[in-house]
Amino acid sequence: MVRHFFFTLLTMQYTHVLITGASSGIGEAIARSLAAKGCHLWLVARRKERLVSLQQELQKEFPHIQVFTFALDVRSAEAVRGLFNDLASGELRPNVIVNNAGLAAGLAAVDAADLEDWHRMIDTNVKGALYVLKYGIPLLKTPQGGHIVHMSSVVSREVYAGGSVYSATKHALDAIHRTLRLELLPWPIKLTSINPGLVETEFSLVRFAGDVDRAQQVYEDIEPLKAEDIADVVAYCLSLPKHVNLPEVHITASAQATATKVRKKDGSIRG
Ligand code: NDP
Ligand code: 8X3
Q1: Which residue from 21, 110, 126, 236 has the least number of CB within 10 angstroms?
Q2: Nearest bound ligand to CA 194?
Q3: 14: three-class secondary structure by DSSP
Q4: Residue 190 structural domain
Q5: What is the DSSP letter of 222?
Q6: Looking at ligand 1, which atom is closest to the CA of residue 227?
Q7: What is the mean pLDDT of residues 145-157?
Q8: How many domains does the chain have?
Q9: Rounded to the nearest 10 degrees, how much is the dihedral formed by the CA atoms of 76, 103, 46, 94?
Q10: What is the residue with the minimal CA distance to atom 19 of ligand 1?
């Protein structure tokens, strides 16, 4: 895809970027975009083969950057602690954390939901994100500072039937984000929360447990955001001068009014 010329020209303030959930969708698009802008990357997700393939591709295309991969589950506090312990003793360290790994599981009403789905969402989107912050923030507490980007959602401020726990996890992430803006004020650490609407990635495939037809229905007849659109916005946020920050970015497709209300390509309204 040819990106808007403006985004190709951005110069990053911080160039050492750790991205969780880099094996697909938004995280992968952010990795591609930032590699093209000269950033060193630390790619984190569970699917090792995907990370390694992306690493090899980026290293070949951009030999001047360094790309590291870490296959781990952010639900493991020990694994996340181990990762940041290792990074703290290395020469090259991240000064940007993109806290992006996350998922929705299922679309059931509260009294019909699968408990395991709740555990997966809360353990990944809230506790996993917290582990990354708890063990990652010390790396950023330097005179040079850094930048933390949270991948939240329109549902950090909205709800819809069947989305109770997914929405609750993003409300929680929003509360954590706003709390950190207070706690980290003594340091030159920027915090940005990105709140996207519908983005066509593997998100719905994961939500519907691999049901391709059901996942495709979410995006058919509409024009959703692409992962690259979010990557452009993240790159823009990371390029702002040191004294400028975007604390919250709300981004939807032009044809989306709320989490569920979308204009279809034929002009009719869904939701
Ligand atoms: P994808 O399913 O394409 O990507 C999710 C990423 O998270 C994958 O790289 C996955 O890697 C990683 N991940 C999931 N669970 C874990 C885990 N336990 N440990 C480590 N990594 C994990 O979806 P998106 O790119 O769309 O989602 C990225 C973020 O954007 C999520 O937080 C999502 O909530 C948010 N978002 C998405 C929207 C959308 O419409 N798509 C809208 C608003 C927000 P792996 O499976 O290899 O571990
Ligand atoms: C994802 C947005 O509306 O699909 O965070 O739940 S939605």
Answers
A1: 110
A2: 1
A3: coil
A4: 2-270
A5: S
A6: 25
A7: 98
A8: 1
A9: -80
A10: 73
Q: What pairing do the DSSP bridges indicate for beta strands 269-270 and 262-263?
A: antiparallel
Mean pLDDT of all residues belonging to the chain? 97
Give the distance (Å) from ligand 2 centre to CA of residue 254: 15
**Residue 243, SS3?**
coil
pLDDT band at 4 (very low <50, low <70, confident <90, very high): confident
270 lines ligand 1 (CB under 6 A): no
Q: Best of 50, 103, 150 to mutate for ligand 1, by most ligand atoms within 8 A of CB?
A: 103
Give 112's DSSP letter: G
Specify the CATH number for the domain of residue 105.
Answer: 3.40.50.720
Residue 238 CA to residue 231 CA, distance in Å, equals 11
Task: List pLDDT tens digits, range 217-247.
Answer: 999 999 999 999 999 999 999 999 999 999 9
> Is pLDDT at 125 greater than 90 in this prediction?
yes
Q: Are 146 and 14 in contact (CB under 8 A)?
A: yes
Residue corresponding to tokens 């950190």: 180
pTM of the complete model: 0.98
Give me the pLDDT at residue 1, please.
60
Cβ-contact 246, 252 below 8 angstroms: no
The first and second tokens of residue 123, run together, are 């353990």
Long-range contacts (CB closer than 8 Å, 24 or more residues apart) made by 168-172: 168/122, 169/102, 169/121, 169/122, 169/125, 169/126, 170/125, 172/125, 172/126
Tell me the C-alpha distance between 69 and 58, whole Å: 12
166 classed as catalytic: yes
pLDDT at 2 over 70: no
Instruction: Write out the two tokens for 107.
Output: 């679309």
